[in-house]
Amino acid sequence: MRAVLQRVKEANVTIDGQVVGVIGQGYLILLGVGPHDTEAQVETLWNKIYKLRIFEDEVGKTNLSLRDVNGDVLIVSQFTLFADCRKGNRPSFTQAAPPQEAERLYEDFIRRARADVPVVATGRFGADMAVGLINDGPFTICLDTDAL
Question: What is the pTM of this model?
Fold first, then answer.
């Protein structure tokens, strides 16, 4: 499972001109699911994200977690995080999980986040989405459960 985690001042996702998810300060999480991912990867990735201390404290040090700042979360499915660009100029996405399994684990990740965070917004799995954000910092981290 892979995630691009962006610390944001605000973020939103729009589908067909309609805003379907919006948050204030917190995380925009672009989430990709691999073919061998399971509920264990959901738990590992969420625990890392939730406990990560990348918000600034009163002296400007990154010592605070999402819980410490009462942050929001916007989760957007992103199979392109598994793009393989080694051959040619057109990416291959065969390393992403099949859509039905990916959607199941994406929904599982959302449920897990909602157990800890009061405001969790989402995009829509498989939809063509426009994502807007004000990146705070900017602060962007790439996470892969294979490396956690």
Answer: 0.96
